[in-house]
Specification:
about 240 residues, alpha/beta, CNF1/YfiH-like putative cysteine hydrolases, seven-stranded mixed β-sheet, four-stranded mixed β-sheet, 8 helices, 14 strands, globular
Length: about 240
C-alpha cells in the first residue's frame, strides 16, 4: 500500500481528552491538560528523550524525581496498573492489548527518530503479544504548522533509527521560512506504528495542537514556565 494511503486507515479524531474508539473498548485512559484532574496512583519515569522501555510496577517508577528510573516508555502486564507520561508539545502514545498489556510512551522528535515506537512494539512482542492485536492512541501534541525545526530534525527523520522510508519521511515534512522546516510528529508516529506491523485500523490520533490550544501546556508557547500534560492508561 502507498505510504499516503496507509494514513486513511487511521481514526483521526478532532479534539477530546480520550479516544472515542477506546471508550467503546471500555479502556481506562485519558489525556489531562490544565483543567482535568490528574488520576491518582500513576507509575511514571524520569524522561530523558531516549528509547528505554521499562516494566511497571516492577521498575521503581514512583517516589521523588531523583529516585525514578530513567526511561521514556513504561509497559505492564499487571492488571490495575496505571502508566503515565508527561509532555508539553512532545507526542504521547498509549498502547493497549485489552486484558493483556498496556504501555505509555513519551516521544519527542529525538525519541521518535531514535526508534522508541518500534522499541515499544518490540518489547510487547517479546512478551508474546502479536503486534496486530495492539490498539494505539496518539495524544495531543504540537502540530506540523507550529513545530518549526532546523535541518537536523529533517535529517534525523530520513536517516535515524525510526526506519521511515524516504517517501514516508517526506509525508512528515514541509518547508518553512528561510532555513526552517516543519515536521508532523503524529504522522511520523502513525507511519512508525505501521512499520512495526501495528494494524492501523486500531490506531487513533487526537488532532489537538498543544501550542495552539490554551487548555494544553506548551513549552514552545509558554517557555520555561510551562506545566505538563499527563497521558495515562490502566490495564
Amino acid at each position: 500500500m502507498q505510504a499516503w494511503a496507509t494514513l486513511n486507515a487511521v481514526q483521526w479524531q478532532r479534539g477530546g481528552v480520550a479516544a472515542d474508539a477506546w471508550k467503546k473498548l471500555g479502556a481506562k485512559h485519558g489525556f489531562t491538560g490544565k483543567h482535568e484532574p490528574t488520576p491518582p496512583a500513576l507509575h511514571h519515569a524520569r524522561q530523558v528523550h531516549g528509547t528505554r522501555i521499562v516494566v511497571a510496577p516492577e521498575a521503581a517508577t514512583g517516589g521523588e524525581t531523583s529516585r525514578r528510573v530513567e526511561a521514556d516508555g513504561l509497559l505492564t502486564l499487571t492488571p490495575g496498573t496505571r502508566l503515565a507520561v508527561k509532555t508539553a508539545d512532545c507526542l504521547p502514545l498509549l498502547l493497549l492489548v485489552p486484558g493483556r498489556a498496556a504501555a505509555a510512551i513519551h516521544a519527542g522528535w529525538r525519541g521518535l527518530t531514535s526508534g522508541i515506537i518500534g522499541e515499544a512494539v518490540l518489547a510487547l512482542t517479546e512478551l508474546g503479544i502479536d503486534a496486530t492485536d495492539i490498539h494505539a492512541v496518539v495524544g495531543p501534541a504540537i502540530s506540523r504548522g507550529a513545530f518549526e525545526v532546523g535541518i537536523e530534525v529533517v535529517e534525523s527523520l530520513h536517516h535515524g533509527a525510526c526506519g521511515l522510508t524516504p517517501v514516508q519521511a517526506a509525508l512528515c515534512i514541509s518547508k518553512g521560512m528561510a532555513d526552517r522546516w516543519h515536521v508532523d510528529l503524529p504522522v511520523a508516529a502513525v507511519l512508525s506504528l505501521a512499520n512495526a506491523n501495528v494494524d492501523l485500523t486500531k490506531v487513533s490520533v487526537i488532532q489537538t495542537c498543544t501550542f495552539a490550544t490554551p487548555q494544553w501546556h506548551s513549552f514552545r508557547r509558554d517557555g520555561k514556565v510551562h506545566g505538563s500534560n499527563w497521558s495515562w492508561v490502566e490495564l
